[in-house]
Each structure stands twice: as C-alpha cells, then as structure tokens.
Amino acid sequence: MTLEYFVKRIVQFFAIAFLAASINFFLPRLTGQDPIQQKLAQLQMQGGSSGGNAKGLIETYNKKFGLDKPILRQYFTYLGDMARLDLGQSISNYPTTVLSLIWHAVPWTVGLLGTATLISFALGTLIGAMMAWGKAPAFLRTIFPAFFTFSAVPPYLMGIILLYVFAFRMSLLPLFGGYGAERIPEFNLSFVRDILYHSILPASSIVIAQIGGWAMGMRSMMVTTKGEDYMLQAEAKGLKWRRIFLRYAVRNAILPQVTALALSLGTIISGAIVVEVVFSYPGVGTVLANAIRGFDWFVIQGVVFMVIITVAFTMLIIDLVYPLLDPRINYRRE
Predict the structure, then answer these.
(1) For the segment 90-141, what is each residue's pLDDT rounded down to a tens digit?
(2) Where are the domains of the chain?
(3) pTM of the model
(4) DSSP H stretches of helix in the chain
(5) Whether the Cβ atoms of residue 276 and residue 109 lie closer than 8 Å to each other
(6) How many CA atoms lie within 13 A of 74 on its CB side?
(7) What is the CATH number of domain 106-294?
(8) Which is nearest to 258 in space by CA: 322, 330, 333, 323?
(9) What is the distance between the alpha carbons of residues 183 and 13, in angstroms, rounded to a whole number?
(10) Exposed, middle or buried by CB within 10 Å (0-12, 13-18, 19+), for 260?
C-alpha cells in the first residue's frame, strides 16, 4: 500500500464525514418543523405544560439551543461542534448531552451487534464452505434450507417471532430489557450472567436472520474456486484436504465475504437498531426511538451522524486491511 493511496482514503473519509454532517444538518430543516415548538406541543398534549406563555418559552429555548441565529451561522457553528464531537444537548433530557446518551448506549449496541454479526458471519461462512466442499455433516445439510428461508426474514420480525414463542408462550427467556428490572448495574459475575441471559433472544434474532445469507454467499464462492488452477495444483501435489480447504479454498473464497460484510454494515446496523426497539434493549436503537417519539431533534441528528461515520470508518478499515488478506492485491500504480 502506498502512502499516496493511504492519504487519499483518509481524505475521502473526511469528505464523507463532511457530506454526512451537512446532509444531517440541512435535511431536518427542509421540513420547516420547529423542534422546540413540537416538544412543547407534545408536553401540552400530555398535560405537562400550559399554553399560556408558549411563545415566550419557544423563544427562550430557541435562544438556548442556538436556533434563533441565521441558518448559515447555525451551519458553521454546527460543523465546528461536529469536528469536536460536540453533538449538542438533548431537548427531552436537558442539560444531558447527546454524546453522553450515545456513550452510555454504545456498549450495549456494540456488544449485541458485534457479537451477533461475528457469530453469524463465522458460522454462515463455515457452513457455506463445508456445504460446497462436500464435508458437511448430515444435520447441516438437513437444516440448511431452513437457514436459507430465514435469511429472507428481517431481524426485527425474527425477533418478534422468537419473543412470542420463547418469552411470551413458553416463558423461557425474558420479554424485554438488557438486565432484570430489579438489578442494579454493577460489575460482577452475577450481573454479567443476567446481561447474557437477556441478550439471548435479540442476538439469536440477528444470527438466525443473517446466517443463511452468509452461507449462500460462501457456498457460491467456494464452487467457483474449486475449479481454479491453484486448486488442481494443490490436489496434484498430494496436500491434505484440510490444508487445501483452509489455505487454498477458504482463504480465496472469503475475500468477497469480507467485502460484503463491510458493504452490508449499514443494513446490519439499521436492522439491529430495530431489534433493540422490539426487545427494549438499552442500546442506540432505543435512544433513537425515544428521541423520535420525543421530537428530540439533536439526539436524532447525533445518532444518525454517528451511524454514518461508523459505516464509513469500517469501510476505510476494510479497504486498508484487504491487502493483508490477499497479498495479490496492492494499490500501487502500474
């Protein structure tokens, strides 16, 4: 990898961040909605505020959040805040900052999404490779069509099905939450077990919905690699089938899988966020859902911006790591 290409990709990443921040700023304002007015109207409907001095309250809060300034001045202030990762303050939970809300929710989402995605990717890739190689056990060949069918079901819908069967009907697993309602969050083995117990259903909904797609993709790539010249040469040299399978077939077939993992991250994140809402899991999805219900403009902006940056950063890392996975790939100019 050349320094020129590395610098180019870094510049592209910051260009994507700038574009995402700009769209994130202007798109909500194109609707012509006033977030402060919407929030006060919601409070009035809930009986939490009277409409006697609504105009004065709107002016006060618009000044507090900088919404009374000209649009270009708001924009440049916003860009400066984004560069410092200052996402503003929550309207619904003032004076709590948006960054602190996201910061407390990110470990839950990363733990759920990261673990479930890696499990589904690893299992799906291994199952697909074994199916194409012809070494898959009989039970895998039996259940594989079911996994392929489940891949057409969105994770949140799979979550609703699992929730109804295992939590509502059979009462084997908890209905909602990241831990028991009676528990106080603390770092000990009992609390960790409680977290794992509550994460079984949401994680399973993501894994079951994704594993079939990864398996089908890997199976297709393994079929194409089996006829390559280097595979025939490896067989002619009398190498053990495990070495041919891992070092020659899987290593080459997995490259498009890694690319697909990065490209589909945006869809995976959006699906996992909805799963969190279904299970009332205390992650970024629940924060976003509460912000939408509460007309919390700045929290919505912050969550959307962080999701876009996460996807862009992951694509950057995958692009830079790709030559390590396949030494034949380089970014030097010919």
Answers:
(1) 877 777 788 888 888 888 888 888 788 888 888 888 888 888 777 777 777 7
(2) 106-294
(3) 0.72
(4) 3-30, 35-45, 54-64, 71-83, 98-109, 115-133, 138-150, 155-162, 189-225, 229-236, 241-243, 251-263, 265-279, 284-293, 297-325
(5) yes
(6) 17
(7) 1.10.3720.10
(8) 322
(9) 42
(10) middle
